[in-house]
Amino acid sequence: MKTKNIEHTVLIRATPKEVYDALMNGKKHSQFTGEPAKIRAKAGAPFTCYGGYITGITLELKAAKRIVQAWRSEGWPDAHYSIVTFALSNKSGGRTQLRFTQVGVPVDDYAKKNQGWRTHYWEPLKKFLEK
After folding, report:
1. Cα–Cα nearest to 82, from 121, 114, 51
2. Predicted pLDDT of residue 54
3. Of 6, 53, 86, 108, which is most buried, counting CB atoms within 10 Å of its CB?
4. Could you tell me the strand order of the sheet in which 3-12 lies?
5. What is the pTM of this model?
6. pLDDT class of 131 with cuts at 50, 70, 90
């Protein structure tokens, strides 16, 4: 199966800890996406987002710095996972630079996922944190 990689860099007016907590706390994740999420900040723990549309396992965590997950979407080939990395760095003025990569997205779902991160994650995350 052919795959592609997604890379985004997003600047958010919030601290790395606030961004990390929004992504890794199930309650906060549900608040910013508006969809059910079961996620906790523990390496090895399974997670689901968007009511089970996204499932995976958290592989590595460095609080307020880095999140690495094995991540799959509903409709992907059986047992196919991509690797998602959120790298957070402190910027001046209380801002966070989020460098995001997703390696191994099935080529037929690439356009939808590439856009989906913008509309279903970065935009609502900024709205949620930049109040």
Report:
1. 114
2. 97
3. 86
4. 3-12, 95-106, 82-91, 66-73, 54-62, 46-49
5. 0.96
6. confident
